[in-house]
Amino acid sequence: MTVKYLKRAIKNPSTDDTKTRIVVQNILNDIEKRREEAIKEITKKFDKYEGEIVLSKEKIEDAIKKVDQKIKDDVQFAHERIKKFAQHQLKSMNNEFEVELSKGLFAGQRLIPVNTAGCYIPGGRYAHISSATMAITPAKVAGVKTIICASPPKDKNGAHPGIIYAANLCGADVILNLGGIAAIASMAYGCFDNPEVDFLVGAGNQYVAEAKRILFGKVGIDLFAGPTEIAIIADKSADKEIVAVDIVGQAEHGYNSPGWVITTDKSLAEYVIKRIPELIENLPEGPKTSAKPAWKDYGEVILCDTKEEMASVSDNYAAEHLEVHAENLDWWLKRLKNYGSLFLGEETTVAYGDKCSGPNHILPTKGAGKYTGGLYVGKFIKCLTFQRMTREANKVVGATAARLGRAEGMEAHARTGDIRIKKYGKK
Fold first, then answer.
1. CATH number of 3-15+227-373
2. CA pair distance 274, 280, nearest whole angstrom
3. Are 150 and 192 in contact (CB under 8 A)?
4. Topology (CATH level 3) of domain 35-221
5. Do domains 3-15+227-373 and 35-221 have the same CATH topology?
6. Which residues are identified as catalytic?
7. Do residues 384 and 110 make contact, with C-beta atoms less than 8 angstroms apart?
8. Phi first, then psi: what are they for 389, rounded to 5°?
9. How many angstroms separate the Cα of 355 from the Cα of each of 60, 84, 131, 160?
10. What are the residue boundaries of the structural domains of the chain, listed by start?
11. Residue 227's Cα: distance from chain center in Å?
């Protein structure tokens, strides 16, 4: 195998983890002790916001009035597709069942949604309206009883009106004007007279991701998320300009968002290395400020000899978003194993998945695609098992359990089988 890096990253997505962890842990400790008081102080300091935290019905209605009708239509378009996809996912899950495993021994499973979910909706640098539809919709389809969402205030009036509209449309029961660590802690600790959430989901910056990681165990989380990533597999048939544009499309997320091009075509590799900085320079100032260091520090271009090499390199990276611009797309669909979400052919792109096409955009990063997929309706559902047994079945199962208990040195376990065999009669 011959794999050559024509551009190699200077940094990796874990570069700043230690510093972030210390900052987040200190803030979480303070919020756990002082709760609402600490949250208000942090929100004032970082978001320059001192207004109401829990949106009233009147404030929600006022925000909705500020949203352009075309944006409302677009949000509804996205919601319909995300909801439909989630509903099909729900149907695809195994039904509840009960089966007789041996004579008199019955076992089964129930699928029960979590009671309360917290959904974080980013809204700092960009107003992530689509994140509201992605986080809240599958929770609603799953049957979650109470959905609390939080999004950072963009000004003195609170969260972005488009986010508020989307959250309300998708079924949020409570909307909070809170961002970052304060939002995650508020939902986990049950502040502002809200219940503690059982499960936390949503994309966010490294501070949000680290807060979720630290709180995992007290609450469930969708996944451990790092900076957003894109990888593109491209052969000689790929459109070079589209490849370059799609890399830049993800780089604007933040200074530490990796973009990887994996190709067998040297001319394509050389083209994107030259073209991507030009495209970045042509961006508005805000996106350019993010995209420039992202490509400089985290971007890579990898030249391979064969499509099998490209697939192996890609599976090793397990990119959050993986685009394939190559011939024989069915081969790639069957061959590729590790990614968050797969985009087959130049006709689709990460931005479609991010905004409105249907599958969820809250996806595994930093190699987590090797062991998990992204957010979906099943993440909000607990698969719970149960069992029941006849007295007659105890004569076999109880004796077996008692013997295994003693073989393991667990005498008290063994005696729970003994007492039932004694009561129900030996075989």
1. 3.40.50.1980
2. 11
3. no
4. Rossmann fold (3.40.50)
5. yes
6. 320-321
7. yes
8. -150, 145
9. 22, 15, 8, 16
10. 3-15+227-373, 35-221, 390-424
11. 11
pTM for the model: 0.91
Q: Strand, helix or coil at 396?
A: helix
Instruction: Give the separation between CA 344 and CA 330, rounded to whole angstroms.
Output: 9
Residues 6+ apart with CB under 8 A from 88: none
Q: Which of 420, 26, 53, 364 is nearest to 226 (CA)?
A: 364
Q: For every one of its 427 residues, what pLDDT tens digit does the chain have, with 9 covering 90 and above?
A: 589 999 999 887 666 678 889 999 999 999 999 999 999 999 999 999 999 999 999 999 999 999 999 999 999 999 999 999 999 999 999 789 999 999 999 999 999 999 999 999 998 777 899 999 999 999 999 999 999 999 999 999 999 999 999 999 999 999 999 999 999 999 999 999 999 999 999 988 889 999 999 999 999 999 888 889 999 999 999 999 999 999 999 999 989 999 999 999 999 999 999 999 999 999 999 999 999 999 999 999 999 999 999 999 999 999 999 999 999 999 999 999 999 999 999 999 999 999 999 999 999 999 999 999 999 999 999 999 999 999 999 999 999 999 999 999 999 999 999 999 999 976 5
Interacting residues of 40 by C-beta distance below 8 A, sequence separation 6+: 50, 53
